[in-house]
Amino acid sequence: MYSLNQRFDNMEIPEDEHMTAGHVACAGCGASLSMRLALKGLGKPTALVVPACCWGIIPGAWPQTAMEVPFFNTAFMTTGAVISGLKAAYRRRGMDDVCVVGWAGDGGTYDIGIQALSGAAERNEDVIYVCYDNEAYMNTGVQRSGGTPLGAWTSTTPAKAPKSEPKKDMDEIMIAHRIPYIATATAAYPHDLIAKFKKARSMRGMRYIHILSACPPGWKTPENMSIEIMRLAVLSNIFPLYEVENSEVFRQTVIPDEVEPVNNYLRSQGRFKHLTQEDIQVYQREVTTRFERLKERFDRIAV
Amino acid sequence: MRKVLTGNQAVAYGAMLSGVEVVAAYPITPQTTIIETLADMQAEGLGDFDYIRVESEHSAMAACIGASMGGVRTFTATSGQGLFLMHEMLHYASGARTPVVLANVNRAPAAPWNIWSDQTDSLSQRETGWIQLYCEGNQEVLDTTIMAFKIAEKLKLPAMVILDAFFLSHTSEPIEIPDKEAVKDFLPTYDPKDIWLDPDNPHTFGAIAMSDPYMELRWQIQRDMEIAKSVIAEVHEDFAHHFGRMYHQVEGYLAEDAEVLVICTGTAASTARVAVEALRAEGERAGLVKIKTFRPFPGEEIIGALKGKKKVAVIDRNFSPGAQGIWAQELRSVLCELSDQERPMVYGYIAGIGGCDISVKTIKEIYYKTLESHRPDDIDMWVGVRHV
Ligand SMILES: Cc1ncc(C[n+]2csc(CCOP(=O)(O)OP(=O)(O)O)c2C)c(N)n1
Ligand code: SF4
Ligand SMILES: [Mg+2]
């Protein structure tokens, strides 16, 4: 179905766990699995900063926590700023080896947190910023965000008037910041995801990782389909897996052998149920155009 | 060392001498020269701290909270609109028990734009859980900045040092700059104890707390605000012991035998000293009470100073639309405890809004109005409105 870029072949997934069972994510939550894998790639010492979002709840209510790394819950729009301050503090204490990671949802990244993120990126703060993207405000009950795709149902874009704008291209916004490292990832390709976190950890300066995270209640999908749906997003070029260094070197890391039509992806989810064949054609054109634009840059460095 | 400094430079010296480790800041008039002075201090090697030039005040406070959670001493400065933008994070800082110190240069709220002195910005943050310390002169500004770190860190509550726009921020005075080593002796390096993001001892902070633990945590903030009253007094004493300058949460001037007391805060207190002297020269039994702390509100000291007086005139350079001056409201609420015989009548005046001058003449006018009136509701509480 797809080929992995050389570098990830034969990679072992570390057995170490830095979060425990017993957290409170829904069954089939892509976000909780992504964190588990990301922490395997990051290892210790790592400190997490998480704004208001599902991940603020997933570790559990006080006094319990599923996290075995320091974890700070912060206000919705502040992730980029809090990680900047925390990293500075570790530096002052001679603990520059602590990897500071901001972990925010699409709402906390595309919308309310974009200013603090952009500030941190412009300052090239020595931190990793992760956007786990479930394409809506899930924690508050599936409202539309700037990361919600074209045509999707959400509780503020009902099926009769679904989202009429395409998903904001946050990756391009980050590419325009010319930071050391940008990557996309998804838990459907765990080797790829872990390798990207390992690589990010080995680098300095601002690193941004965008993770597509299936959300059964928000996407109206069966709980046992999350991995398959995230894989379909990659295979249909809706969510291409790639990495970018210094906004110059673009590398696709998982290359579908045969590109799937978007139809299969869209038809797998209740949130797109109302789409007509024409809608799906429009969708296909959007996806193809965006991918072609990206591909030009993959091609350039392939030579 | 003696030097001529503006209030804003005094703040910067205070933060630098306190050994602040992370500064995160964003410009706004009339605060900007604080963070410019700090930038120069850092560039010239006078201060050794990390300086995060954030993209907003909301982020300035967020970055300070992040740094404080990393276990280091943090500082920022702002004014008016910047403080309003921080509001969400002001609550967050006290809830997270991060002892951030912030200097706020009082600036009137927009619209319309106005950059001049008015306390409505800081006073409208009264429920955010910040200790609030108001200053009368530039020496007090520098000294209070240093003391604020000690108070905040002892209590694990954030503290705000407040100075009037232009009257202090941009006015120069000769002041005594303490020796850095002496300050270090008074204020050792910040020790966050076990409340920080220690990778060797990982904890989750700020996770959702159900109603019972949440209520207990809020109760702890109130408990510590009560303790703050004695902590502030101790720090004042300790400071006097180290540097020979004593401050008080409530301070009387010619107040003992006074019949009518003027209550002032900030630079208005300085002007009131002169006004009260002038009134005394006219044979009046006028006195002044200056209040330095707004949170925690020093109720007992105020009662001690005002009990048995006939009338007090509170001068508020701020107001709460639909109600009245904020210091007057607070004062009335503590004076309720007194019996009818002991309780003075409280006259609340609004003056100096948006940077209008509170002159010796204004204060004398307020004094005579109070003296001659029978009841507080007989008088117009707004002084100096020109109806242009
Ligand atoms: C300033 C502010 N506005 C609104 C909220 C309410 N709120 C909490 S989480 C959330 C949605 C989060 O969405 P996203 O970032 O996509 O994360 P998700 O829950 O989808 O994982 C909202 C709107 C808030 N906590 N703070
Ligand atoms: S609502 Fe979605 S993102 Fe949130 S915990 Fe459930 S599955 Fe995960
Ligand atoms: Mg989301």
Please name the defining characteristics of this protein.
heterodimer, A: 303 residues, alpha/beta, Rossmann fold, nine-stranded mixed beta sheet, 11 helices, globular, B: 388 residues, 2 domains, seven-stranded mixed beta sheet, five-stranded mixed beta sheet, binds thiamine diphosphate, binds iron/sulfur cluster, binds magnesium ion
Question: How would you characterize the overall build of this protein?
Answer:
- Chain A is α/β, with parallel strands linked by helices and 303 residues long.
- Chain A has one domain (16-295): Rossmann fold (3-Layer(aba) Sandwich), CATH 3.40.50.
- Chain A has eleven helices and nine strands.
- A nine-stranded mixed β-sheet of chain A has the order 1-9-8-6-7-5-4-2-3, with helices on both faces.
- In chain A, helix 1 (30-42) packs across helix 7 (190-202).
- In chain A, 54% of the residues are buried.
- The mean pLDDT of chain A is 95.
- Chain B is an alpha/beta fold.
- Chain B has two domains: 2-243, Rossmann fold (3-Layer(aba) Sandwich), CATH 3.40.50; 250-378, 3-Layer(aba) Sandwich (Rossmann fold).
- In chain B, 41% of the residues lie in helices and 19% in strands.
- Chain B has a seven-stranded mixed β-sheet with strand order 3-2-4-5-7-6-13, sandwiched between helices.
- In chain B, strand 2, helix 2 and strand 3 form a beta-alpha-beta unit.
- The A-B interface holds A 44-47, 49, 56-57, 59-63, 65, 67-75, 77-78, 80-93, 95, 98, 115-116, 118-119, 122-123 and B 21-22, 24, 49-50, 52-56, 58-60, 62-72, 74, 88-89, 92, 197-200, 202-210, 213.
- Strand 3 (71-73) of chain A pairs parallel with strand 9 of chain B, so a sheet runs across the interface.
- Bound molecules: thiamine diphosphate, iron/sulfur cluster and magnesium ion (MG).
- Magnesium ion binds at residues 105-107, 134, 136-138, 145 of chain A.
